[in-house]
User: Which sequence fits this backbone?
């Protein structure tokens, strides 16, 4: 399923024949029963490097905050933007990124899907493709442990 979700949730739902009208119901169940362990090894090391961290997500804000709190990560993030809740066009539209840039500079965007990185490239921001060699990015990482050696020296 992850392969399809890396495209986007709509494509994944279509692939598995899940009714789009029940999307929110399925997403809430997924959030409730997934993520038993921390999301990514060495993630906190990378979050500690940046002065400010931001999340721009299609996920609803409630579930995003729930997961960040569950794994004690919320304190790392200055801003959490949920595009659906805050009325921005969905990525790859750059409106949500422009919203963050109004108040904070963004030097780097990390994403695992092409649509995460398109707005960053449009705005001239360096990009990192995480666990996805197939997408266009300035850098590619399979593990956050490699961030300090594969990305940081080039920023």
Assistant:
């Amino acid at each position: 399923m992850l392969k399809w979700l890396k495209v986007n949730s709509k494509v994944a739902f279509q692939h598995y024949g899940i009714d789009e009208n029940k999307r929110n119901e399925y997403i809430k169940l997924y959030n409730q029963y997934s993520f038993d362990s921390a999301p990514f090894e060495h993630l906190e090391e990378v979050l500690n490097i940046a002065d400010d961290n931001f999340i721009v997500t299609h996920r609803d804000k409630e579930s995003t905050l729930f997961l960040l709190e569950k794994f004690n990560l919320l304190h790392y993030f200055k801003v959490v933007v949920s595009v659906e809740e805050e009325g921005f066009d969905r990525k790859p539209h750059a409106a949500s990124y422009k919203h963050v840039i109004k108040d904070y500079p963004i030097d780097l965007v990390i994403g695992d899907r092409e649509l995460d990185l398109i707005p960053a490239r449009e705005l001239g921001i360096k990009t990192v493709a995480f666990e996805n060699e197939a997408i266009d990015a300035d850098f590619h990482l399979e593990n956050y442990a490699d961030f300090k050696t594969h990305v940081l020296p080039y920023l």
